[in-house]
Amino acid sequence: NSNANHWWKVDLGDIYPIDGVEINWEYAELYNYVIEVSIDNNNWIKVVDKSNNDSNEKNQMSGFSKENARYVRITVTGLKSGYWASMNECKVFYAK
């Protein structure tokens, strides 16, 4: 639904040095969100804060300083009324 605070999480199966996330949203609309990473699925580190996002691009890439993580979580903190918090694809990048 169009309420905020819906989240999506992925378990990468092992710990990797994560340094970027690319989201392909379902619609080219304004989505406010934060991206967090975790090693243990309990303690989270915020690596991207787009709570005041001004981009309505369907495809949004966020690079950040390398963080070791097994889990990646995206929480939608706000979106346009009538739109769902949904994405087509999410890519997680790690430093080699």
UniProtKB/TrEMBL annotation:
Chain ranges of the F5/8 type C domain: 1-95
Keyword presence, Hydrolase: yes
InterPro entries with a match to the protein in the record: FA58C, Galactose-bd-like_sf
Span of the signal peptide: none
GO molecular function, one term: hydrolase activity, acting on glycosyl bonds
Keyword Nucleotidyltransferase set for record: no
Keywords tagged on the record: Glycosidase, Hydrolase
Superkingdom of the source species: Bacteria
Gene3D superfamilies in alphabetical order: Galactose-binding domain-like
Protein's recorded name: Tat pathway signal protein
Organism of origin: Clostridium perfringens
